[in-house]
TrEMBL record:
Transcription regulation recorded as keyword: yes
Naturally occurring in which organism (per UniProt): Listeria newyorkensis
Pfam families on file: Mga
Name by which UniProt lists this protein: Mga helix-turn-helix domain-containing protein
Tree of life domain: Bacteria
Keywords: Transcription, Transcription regulation
InterPro entries with a match to the protein in the record: BglG_antiterminators, Mga_HTH
Length: 482
């Protein structure tokens, strides 16, 4: 983050983060110590932020010599971060390069009302950042050079982190057109993208399509090319409909580009809608990506059997590691820069994860671990600790109630059950056949026989419930040892 925005903007972002998550107003002394700046610098930063940021979005107030941040109800810290990134020099320059403006330094400086001398200083900072991502900033004209996949990842990551403040990134292709493809991808793969992750995947696809149309083709190594057949045959990817994307390009997309579009889905998050699909995708890694699978298995030993949703966590790790198939070094993943601790308790520590990864970083099959150890560790740290916090909820019995008489009778049965068991023991699920995630229920209680494709246990009850009915439910809850 320090390299994406100027040092002063980074300092302001840190100040905003501390104020955003503070549980009470902070004194200037407390804030200067946390931000690590002088009192005069803090005052100047507050004044500048308040003068440039729309008051209806966010504003820093002072009351009784203490500072606090007030934001609109629909503004979270990620939005403030997107605001800061969008107003950074790197973002403005990157948008110009992405749109293939091909401006010289004097032309860009004149267009953006900055002196060439000042712009040269900013370019030095930007060039340093790009070098860490193994990219080169050329200035005759201004453009980014390097491995095409790394360039696309850079643009995608920057535009995703600046959204929604920056808005949609293309005037040539709409989100709706790309989303039409994503829906077909979901149906074929048995996965679901949330509204926010759908936008992230759409942005990444838009970057790819724009670069393809500008004449910048994806380049794969011989090893990377050899994986295309594996994926296409295992997932029957030849049946995925790319017509919505081909229409933008006015020609069919090449096999390599289709493969790239499929793989960039792993830069985002999606949910498998059935346990069968989870196992199916895990088996792919076990069969074709043995090194990656072995690493994930070893990493999972840190949980020491404390997670019930073992396969779900395993697949999340495998999906995350997949992004390093192409993007060898993901410098500056913005979500690494946590100013505030996010998840408690800290059961699986960063040190434990780093130590586990350390034994792989010098192995020739795991060179990406050495280059991305901090990024991977941070992701795993959050994943493990959130999963452990969810475990108490997961271990409770999840029940779906079905009545042949309809909703009111289902609510009646729930009320009867709740008289015997609180949420400490049992949780009701509303969806029988969810479209956005796999079914969450462990048990179905119905007042008639039901036939389901799943192997979920069904208890057939009476209305009103009998002593036998509650006895059957009690045995199931007792067996779970909640």
């Amino acid at each position: 983050m320090k390299d994406i925005i100027t040092a002063s903007d980074y300092r302001k972002l840190k100040m905003l983060n501390i104020l955003f998550f503070a549980e009470k107003p902070l004194s200037k002394k407390e804030l200067t110590a946390a931000v690590e700046c002088s009192l005069n610098t803090l005052k100047a930063d507050v004044k500048l932020f308040n003068s440039t940021c729309p008051m209806e979005m966010a504003h820093i107030y002072e009351e009784d010599k203490r500072l606090f941040l007030k934001t609109a109800p629909d503004i979270n810290f990620d939005f403030l971060q997107a605001y800061m990134i969008t107003h950074s020099d790197l973002f403005v320059l990157s948008v110009s390069i992405f749109h293939n403006d091909k401006l010289t330094i004097p032309e860009w400086a004149e267009k953006n009302f900055i002196s060439p001398a000042s712009f040269y200083l900013k370019l030095k900072e930007i060039d340093t950042f790009l070098a860490r991502s193994r990219l080169i900033l050329k200035n005759k004209p201004l453009q980014i050079e390097g491995n095409e996949i790394n360039i696309r990842f850079y643009f995608s990551h920057l535009f995703i982190r600046s959204h929604p403040y920056s808005g949609w990134i293309s005037e040539e292709i709409s989100f709706e057109q790309i989303n039409s493809f994503i829906q077909k991808f979901e149906a074929h793969m048995g996965v679901f993208f949330s509204i926010s992750s759908r936008m992230e995947y759409a942005i990444a696809i838009c970057v790819c399509l724009t670069r393809i149309k500008q004449g910048y083709a994806a380049e794969l190594s011989p090893v990377e090319k050899s994986t295309i057949d594996d994926i296409y045959k295992y997932y029957h990817a030849e049946n995925i409909d790319f017509n919505d994307l081909d229409a933008f390009l006015d020609e069919p997309m090449s096999l390599i580009e289709r493969y790239t579009i499929l793989n960039i889905s792993f830069l985002c998050s999606f949910t498998d809608i059935s346990l069968d699909r989870i196992k199916f995708r895990i088996d792919y890694h076990k069969k074709f990506r043995k090194q990656r699978f072995a690493l994930a298995e070893d990493i999972l030993t840190l949980l020491d059997g404390r997670i019930q949703e073992y396969d779900t966590i395993k697949l999340a790790i495998l999906d995350y590691l997949t992004r390093f198939t192409f993007v060898k070094k993901t410098n500056l993943i913005l979500d690494v820069d946590h100013f505030s601790k996010k998840f408690y308790p800290d059961v699986i520590t960063m040190e434990m994860i780093m130590q586990k990864l350390q034994k792989y970083e010098r192995h020739p099959d795991y060179l990406f671990v050495r280059d991305n150890k901090k990024v991977i560790s941070t992701y795993l740290h959050d994943l493990f600790n959130v999963s452990l916090m969810n475990e108490l909820f997961t271990r409770r019995l999840h029940v779906k109630v079905i009545s042949k008489s309809g909703f009111l009778w289902e609510e009646y049965l729930k009320g009867q059950i709740r008289q015997h068991y609180s949420e400490e023991y049992l949780i009701f699920c509303e969806e029988l056949d969810p479209k956005e995630h796999m079914p969450q229920y462990d048990l179905i209680i119905s007042d008639s026989h039901v036939e389901l494709p799943s192997k979920t246990k069904v208890l057939v009850w009476h209305v009103p419930p009998t002593k036998r009915d509650f006895s059957q439910l009690g045995e199931i809850i007792e067996a779970r040892k909640v």
